Amino acid sequence: MSISKKDVEYIAALSRIHVPEDKLEGVAKNLSDIVGYVEQLQQLNLKDVKPTSHAVPLSNALRLDVVKPSFSNAEALSIAPEAKDGCFKVPLVIE
Amino acid sequence: MKLHSLSAHQILELYKEKKTSPEEVLKDVVMRIESVEPKIHAYAHVNTHPKAMEGSLAIPIAMKDNMCRKGEEVTCSSKILKGFKAPYDATVVAKIKQSGGIILGSANMDEFAFGSSTESSCYGPTFNPWNLSCVPGGSSGGSAASVAADEAIWSLGSDTGGSIRQPASFCGIVGLKPTYGRVSRYGLIAFASSLDQIGPLTKDVTDCALLMNVIAGYDDRDSTSVNEPVPDYTKALVNDVHGLKIGVPKEAFVEGLDPEVRASVQAAIDELKKLGAIIKEVSLPHTPYAVATYYIIATAEASSNLARFDGIRFGLRESPSKLRKNTLIDLYEETRANGFGDEAKRRIMLGTYVLSSGYYDAYYLSGQKVRTLIKQDLDEAFKECDVILTPTAPTTAFKVGEKVSDPLAMYLSDIYTIPANLAGIPSISIPCGFSKAGLPIGLQLMGKAFDEEMLLRVCYTYEQNTPWHTKKPNL
Asked: Is B293 at the interface with chain A, CB within 8 A?
């Protein structure tokens, strides 16, 4: 199946990556090539096959609910691009 | 004496005999870096003042640029993390430090480990020590090249679809991807969480066992870490393969396999047979689908893992003057468009696509089902043999620039390494010869889950009876 420029715009929006108009076609071609290649899986009969999400059978990894030392507010904010009043600063969310 | 050209176990012998000190070794390796690094570019960042430490394994090491080291810059060789200083140590880093390891710097890599050539790094490519016009493989290309060029005594890499083994093969060294869950990934910046594993890149098999002794083990800070007893891996260094069964998949010697690689691997099979191993043909009928399966599962997981790079809590944030509108969404979209390279963006978008409504069943679910079939093939094959042998890569190192514009061709260089990640089993690459052009050729062995010892034993035996690990590039 080939991926159109319109598909790329949709996927880019979902991915939160801005793709400029002049790049849409190139991206569409690259993605179409790869999607065309992975479509070979549809040759297989997978009706009764169970999916594997993890190779090693692990059930829930639980731990004791005890408080341990963690980052301080200052440490966490020290690597933030922008911080104010002990919080991460972001552009206006609700107008 | 050229200390930098020695293996870790040779240096440890010299320590024992009081013939050298960690300070001397460090000084010699730093001089080596100064002399050859301009040609190789194995490092993303070289530590300016590495210190010799106290400990039983005071060996200079390179760490891939995706392992967090407290207070040091770690970037996954991506512009989006430039300047990011990790607030904590990864478990493997803490273990290396506790053992006395001397961290030389962070090794260059494909951006976010997306690649097989180390060309997608934001710092520019690493070059193959055996031929500077060729790639070192990837994504742990810097880790492999640093060891092959004696710019580090050993190194750590990470392997999601072959990223330790393929560069080890291209650079003529030993690279092990341990069993999924064997080594803690706490502090490893994630690519594909159901596949990623940290492992050693070393000059020989003995060093591989020594470094595994440092890094293997359960960690409650990694919920996928498996609480299995850790053996002393050096006990597996036994020069004997009599009666061991080595499976060779008939699907491994297919079209696209370089004739020189085929000949070297065949010669290795003959050598192992001569040494007493029993060679058995096995079948892995679904391996031709492994690359397609991998590029669905790995990109799906990557698209989710890389959502955290959004310009809010750490890393790059696009300046307000460059935004189209000063909104939160615009900030995300412009930061990610500017911060990620082309291959990273391609994989995030592909992963988003295969997970998106309407396509999930056709792609992601199908991928997970074929993963089951590939794992079942391996389980079946291991009923008849102790290890499975294939080439590590279909070719020797390719030229810089050769595959950059053809992502699919690049992906196919992982055709032999991907099944072990999908099945979660351990797998190792060791040198098994050279092409006429003088480029190293790698042999891959896959083992049963948590049976790294069997891989080490077979590889040690092969190594002790062949000369390949003693060869060095001319630099």
From this structure: yes
- The separation between CA B290 and the C-alpha centre of its own chain, rounded to angstroms, equals 18
Closest CA to B58 of B26, B32, B22: B22
Give the closest residue to B453 by CA, choosing from B393, B389, B388, B387. Answer: B387
pLDDT tens for chain A, residues 1 to 95: 789 999 999 999 999 999 999 999 999 999 999 999 999 999 999 999 999 998 887 788 888 899 999 889 999 999 999 999 999 999 887 76
Range of the domain at B207: 3-247+383-470
Q: Which residue has the tokens 């962070």?
A: B106
Count: domains in chain A: 1
* Domain encompassing residue A34: 5-43
Catalytic residue among B139, B158, B264, B413: B139
What's B161's domain CATH number?
A: 3.90.1300.10
What number of helices (H) and strands (E) belong to chain A? Answer: 3, 2
ipTM: 0.95
Position A36: which residue type?
G
Distance, CA of B151 to CA of B61 (rounded, Å): 9
Instruction: Decide if B77 contacts B122 (C-beta within 8 A).
Output: yes
Indicate whether A31 belongs to any domain.
Answer: yes
Is residue A17 a part of any domain in this protein? Answer: yes
Instruction: Count up the domains in chain B and report the number.
Output: 1
Does A82 map to a domain? no
Q: Do B313 and A41 touch (CB under 8 A)?
A: no
Q: Tell me if the pTM is above 0.95.
A: yes
Look at residue A19 and tell me if it is in a domain.
Answer: yes
